[in-house]
């Protein structure tokens, strides 16, 4: 039953300046080797005295939480009951968790706070997981098609006859260690803080008034990881690993819009991951919420209109220029933070990177992860209306290969080593 919301706003305690102690209640020591040594991430708004981060949990969904509180649908002081919510699979801790330079944009211990800080939660600290790990069955028509065409074989464990594939599914919210993020981009932390403050219209005054708070929960989308195979061996470089890092494209990924290659490439990546898992390896899909190259869907659709209406029609040589004319930049995904999730998984080597993007490849290898080979989308999977995109990317230096879907990567590697 919905409670009657209060007609008046209650007293507000500003968080823009430190309290009498001058520091957060429970400090965060980024890069420590255990959850207890590192300390909890507390974004509680019900008890400002407990807060030790800037921002609030759940990214942009915090606005819906606020609406639920304002309308009386949610008790603002309620603490989540985490009974039976623990991960279905254990990940880590890995060596990278103890390196403050390897992981700066997610909380390495975000999945285990329910157990690691149970005593603090019992004392009333609102400590919430920023990572959740579960199991799921995925069902994609493209996988069924790959089965029907003989590119994938049913094994009853990873891939069922009906086309369902078993996966471990991991949801991750962003948690930024501001000093680490600044170092990653090679800029001063003060510049990062001031720019974030200014370009969020002053939403987070603590960015410029609370230097004692070094962790920021940005109001952006997170990511989902889909893992095929044995979770415990993902970090083992002797076990072959296929990875696809995919940036969200709702129009194509969900609704099948044919102006880009996003869904076909995603499906190609899932197929490659399943095949790798069936060969005794593992596959990882990282799905980032960065719609329209992080420019947003409205901007993306405006660019679509500009591309199609320009003199000469939609063409490869003007592909990136049209985006820059509307948005001011070609791309705002900034892949520098992207490898963090791979380090969180303990990845040290990728045998197959399913990507044409030189930016993704360079970010991964620059972070210390080796890439053995890359897979581009096969020509036959490119929709007719998406050839402008592919031609533009090839002209811009993106990786391109005509590797057919379903080809055994081990056989290709053996052929290359034998000089075939």
What does this structure look like?
There is one protein chain. The protein has a 7-stranded mixed beta sheet with strand order 2-3-6-8-7-9-10, sandwiched between helices. It has a 3-stranded mixed beta sheet with strand order 1-5-4. The termini are far apart. It is built from 17 helices and 10 strands. The protein is α/β, with parallel strands linked by helices and 420 residues long.
Structural class computed from helices and strand pairing: alpha/beta
Topology, number of strands: 10
The backbone outline, from C-alpha atoms, is globular
* H/I helix tally: 17
- Round the mean pLDDT to the nearest integer and report it: 86
Uncertain stretches of 5 or more adjacent residues: 402-420
Task: From the structure above, extract its key features.
420 residues, alpha/beta, three-stranded mixed β-sheet, globular, disordered C terminus
Describe this structure in a few short sentences:
The chain is of the alpha/beta class and 420 residues long. The chain has helices at residues 35-38, 62-70, 113-116, 118-122, 141-148, 178-184, 189-198, 206-209, 250-253, 262-278, 291-294, 297-309, 319-327, 340-344, 358-366, 387-395, 409-417, and strands spanning 54-55, 131-139, 164-172, 176-177, 215-217, 223-228, 241-247, 282-288, 349-354, 370-375.
Question: Helices and strands in order, then pairings?
Answer:
Elements: H1 35-38, E1 54-55, H2 62-70, H3 113-116, H4 118-122, E2 131-139, H5 141-148, E3 164-172, E4 176-177, H6 178-184, H7 189-198, H8 206-209, E5 215-217, E6 223-228, E7 241-247, H9 250-253, H10 262-278, E8 282-288, H11 291-294, H12 297-309, H13 319-327, H14 340-344, E9 349-354, H15 358-366, E10 370-375, H16 387-395, H17 409-417
Helix pairs in contact: 6-7, 12-13
């Amino acid at each position: 039953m919905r409670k009657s919301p209060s007609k008046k706003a209650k007293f507000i305690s500003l968080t823009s300046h430190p309290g009498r102690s001058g520091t957060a209640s429970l400090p965060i020591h980024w890069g420590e080797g255990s959850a207890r040594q590192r300390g909890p991430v507390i974004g509680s708004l019900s008890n400002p005295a407990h807060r030790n981060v800037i921002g609030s949990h759940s990214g942009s969904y915090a606005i819906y939480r606020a609406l639920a509180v304002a309308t009386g649908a949610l008790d603002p002081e309620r603490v989540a009951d985490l009974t039976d919510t623990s991960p279905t699979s254990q990940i880590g801790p890995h060596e990278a968790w103890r390196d403050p330079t390897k992981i700066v944009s997610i909380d390495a211990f975000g999945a285990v706070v329910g157990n690691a800080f149970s005593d603090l939660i019992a004392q009333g600290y609102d400590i919430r997981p920023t990572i959740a790990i579960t199991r799921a069955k995925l069902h994609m028509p493209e996988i069924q098609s790959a089965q029907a065409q003989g590119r994938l074989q049913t094994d009853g464990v990873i891939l069922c006859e009906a086309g369902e594939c078993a996966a471990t599914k991991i949801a991750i919210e962003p948690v930024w260690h501001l000093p680490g993020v600044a170092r990653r981009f090679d800029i001063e932390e003060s510049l990062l803080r001031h720019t974030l403050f200014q370009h969020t219209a002053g939403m987070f005054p603590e960015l410029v008034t609370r230097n004692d708070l070094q962790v920021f929960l940005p109001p952006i989308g997170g990511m989902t990881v889909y893992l095929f195979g044995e979770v415990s061996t993902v970090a083992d470089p002797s076990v072959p690993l296929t990875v696809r890092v995919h940036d969200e494209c709702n129009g194509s990924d969900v609704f099948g819009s044919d102006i880009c290659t996003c869904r076909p490439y995603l499906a190609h990546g899932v197929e490659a991951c399943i095949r790798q898992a069936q060969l005794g390896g593992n596959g990882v899909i990282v799905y980032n919420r960065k719609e329209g190259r992080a420019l947003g869907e409205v901007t993306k659709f405006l660019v679509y209109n500009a591309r199609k209406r320009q003199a000469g029609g939609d063409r490869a040589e003007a592909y990136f220029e049209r985006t820059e004319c509307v948005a001011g930049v070609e791309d705002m995904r900034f892949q520098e933070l992207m490898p963090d999730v791979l380090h969180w998984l303990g990845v040290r080597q990728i045998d197959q990177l399913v990507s044409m993007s030189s930016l993704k490849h360079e970010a991964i290898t620059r972070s210390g992860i080796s890439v053995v080979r890359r897979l581009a989308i096969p020509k036959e999977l490119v929709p007719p209306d998406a050839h402008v995109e592919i031609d533009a990317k090839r002209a811009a230096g993106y990786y391109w290969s005509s590797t057919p879907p379903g080809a055994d990567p081990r056989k290709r590697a053996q052929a290359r080593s034998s000089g075939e």
